[in-house]
Design brief:
alpha+beta, 101 residues, 2 helices
Length: 101
């Protein structure tokens, strides 16, 4: 069952690697160990998670986060399509900073 209550069954593209924007985001996030990843909140909104938090006082991490955010915004429609059809899952982000599935 998906977040919108529909049965899984993606039409057309079925794997996250079939979505260029998702691949670009994944490759970027894996390019440097900056503690930045995708998660979802309890309402199924996709978020870009930074652990520890990011501030402008850390210019390299700040710029990496800004670039990741731009890539995530481009990939959002594809990410939601993948999640809606059960082709991708994201960890639930705890509002207290812990990640859980």
């Amino acid at each position: 069952m998906t977040r919108d209550g529909q049965a899984p069954g993606c039409t057309g593209q079925t794997h996250w690697r079939d979505f260029p924007a998702v691949v670009a985001l994944s490759e970027f996030l894996r390019s440097k160990p900056m503690g930045i990843s995708l998660a979802r909140d309890p309402h199924w909104r996709i978020i870009l998670r930074a652990r520890p938090g990011v501030t402008p006082e850390e210019p390299e991490r700040w710029e990496f986060y800004r670039q990741a955010l731009a890539l995530a915004e481009t990939a959002l429609p594809d990410l939601y399509e993948l999640m809606d059809h059960g082709r991708m899952g994201l960890p639930l982000a705890d509002p207290h900073g812990n990640q859980r599935r």
